Amino acid sequence: MGAEQYHEMAIVARAAAASEALPRRRSQHEQSAERWEEMARLAEDTADRKIINEAARRANPYGQS
User: What pLDDT was estimated at residue 25?
Assistant: First the structure.
């Protein structure tokens, strides 16, 4: 799953929380949305690091300082 999909899952969880009548279930949906958003942030960070690492490898293909 990519960051976009995690963001979509967070939206779904927030919608479920908004439509939930039971407070405990609503809280569970909200916590789920927060976890999805955190996973999206981590996926975005990983993608950013991948780009940086690839650029570094192209600049120095043999790992020499």
Answer: 98
Inside any domain, residue 48: yes
Residue labelled with tokens 């958003």: 37
Give the span between the Cα atoms of 23 and 17, in whole angstroms: 9
Range of the structural domain that residue 7 is part of: 3-59
Hey, what amino acid is at 60? Answer: N
Any domain includes 65: no
Contact 37, 6 (CB under 8 A): yes
Q: So what's the pLDDT on residue 63?
A: 74
* Count of domains for the chain: 1
- Predicted confidence band of residue 55 (pLDDT cuts 50, 70, 90): very high
Other beta carbons less than 10 A from residue 20's beta carbon: 15
